[in-house]
Amino acid sequence: MALLEVDSISVSFGGIKALTEVSLKVEEGQMVGLIGPNGAGKSTTISVISGLRNPNAGKVVFDNRNMLKAGVHRRVEYGMTRTFQRLELWDSMSVYDNVRTAAEFAARSRTDFDPKQAAEEAISELGLGDVVEYSTSQLPTGTARLVEVARALASRPKLMLLDEPSAGLDSTESERLGHVLAAVVRRGVSILLVEHHIDMVFQHCQQVFVLDFGRLIADGDPQAVQNDENVRAAYLGGHHGATV
Ligand code: ADP
Ligand code: MG
């Protein structure tokens, strides 16, 4: 069984169907991309997986456990962590304390890691050693994004759900982030990557799922998805800037 199985989830906001019977999988040790035009339902999918929002129908199975009744904190305990499209750092704290606090929080319900060590490794892996003393409000967006990924990593997750981690990064920084994430995956952490920069997705993901108007319109390896007629039509449809 895959590490994460999202099985036919639907979400409505009032009359709007944000997601209709969406299914996807993340196998252990994979980086999987989730792409689609603005408003396609990517962030909503991440919120359902992480437990922030209940689906109207469907189920999420993580590490062989049905997540139906598991809240956000329980899911972190099981090894799932997320970042947000809008930065959600603790601005009054230093970079180090942001990362360390996330590690301490996760370690409260787990005995399999030392939070200090986890925080330091995450800081080093994201190349943040030079800015540990800065408060996150002083950082350029690009660096703040990296802190958010470091914070997610410091909870020693099995699966990271990343919602547009390269937003606000320039192309060099995005490129670097892609390689950092690939290295994280190589040492066994799985990633579900929502990205506007689809080059990063096609370069690093083994599988890609494509949403449009809340429905899954394609999935497969990067090559197959790039050549998919429906994907091309969705991206060239006019209401958004990205191209495949
Ligand atoms: P994406 O992340 O792909 O841009 P979202 O998941 O944010 O898309 O949004 C999917 C759809 O659900 C959009 O039509 C959006 O306007 C709607 N939506 C998202 N969150 C809410 C909410 N809290 N209340 C009402 N509608 C929402
Ligand atoms: Mg979004």
Please write out the topology.
Elements: E1 4-13, E2 16-26, E3 31-35, H1 42-50, E4 57-62, E5 65-66, H2 72-78, E6 80-82, H3 95-107, H4 115-125, H5 141-153, E7 159-163, H6 171-186, E8 190-194, H7 198-204, E9 207-212, E10 215-220, H8 222-226, H9 229-236
Parallel strand pairs: 3-8, 3-9, 6-7, 7-8
Antiparallel strand pairs: 1-2, 1-4, 4-5, 9-10
Helix pairs in contact: 3-4, 3-5, 4-5, 6-7
Bound molecules: adenosine-5'-diphosphate (ADP) and magnesium ion.
Question: Care to describe what's here?
Answer:
- The chain has 244 residues and is of the alpha/beta class.
- It has a 6-stranded mixed beta sheet, with helices on both faces. A 4-stranded antiparallel beta sheet has the order 2-1-4-5, covered by helices on one side.
- A hairpin with a 2-residue loop joins strand 9 and strand 10.
- It is globular, with a radius of gyration of 17 Å.
- The model has no long low-confidence stretch (mean pLDDT 92).
- The site of magnesium ion (MG) has 3 residues, from helix 1.
- Adenosine-5'-diphosphate (ADP) binds next to strand 2 and helix 1.
Main structural class: alpha/beta
Give me the Rg, rounded.
Answer: 17 Å
Largest sheet: 6 strands, mixed
Global geometry: globular
Indicate the proportion of strand residues. 15-25%
Mean pLDDT: 92
The helix fraction, in percent, is 25-40%
Bound small molecules, deduplicated: adenosine-5'-diphosphate, magnesium ion
Number of strands: 10
Short key terms for the protein model shown above:
alpha/beta; binds adenosine-5'-diphosphate; four-stranded antiparallel β-sheet; single chain; 244 residues; six-stranded mixed β-sheet; binds magnesium ion
